[in-house]
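One record is set out below.
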Amino acid sequence: MSAAVPEGAADPAATPPQSVRLVNLPNALTMFRLAVVPLFALLLLSEGGLDHDRRIWATLFFAGAIITDRYDGMIARRTNQVTEFGKLADPIADKALTGTALLGLSVLGLLPWWVTVVILFREIGVTLLRFWVIRHGVIAASRGGKAKTVLQALAIGLYILPLSGPLASARWWVMGAALVLTIVTGIDYVYRAVTLRRTSARAMQAAAARRAAGGEQAPGQTRRDTAA
């Protein structure tokens, strides 16, 4: 399991420079991913999912959007272009794309609803946890989390494609592996988020301030008890 980014270091994702331009390549890639979502949904659901050509196009759009997700954050960190907008929009774009794909597949009867519910519950929960700890630090992605992302994208892509025969059966095993990693890494993320909230430099400073305030009040309380 990966540890949180050291609190002593100035993490660009936690404290982005205020001089960074809002209009930059990473944010443009994120906005592209958001813009693709409605077109992707239209292609996937066209003709009740029976239009194979459009489902192939939907797969291509999904794959392209997933690739931008891989590179927008990396470019932002390496070129020091992390912005508050990017921190907010990036997870929203990710969840919008993945959520639309999962919901669409379940609506078409290609993927069981319980699988969609479990994955979306985990993804939305992790996003909320990320904002819950953002002032305390950034939780680095674990190897399991990275593997989950790859397997999840691969499984969704296989379900979008109009496959039949052995390949159609194989995609369930890929989704099953992604589902296991989704649950395990979700539990791991909750543990690391709670730990970070308790042990970060910000939390330690707040605890020290509370102890100091309690120490200042103790003598006064003692004098009142003595006088009484």
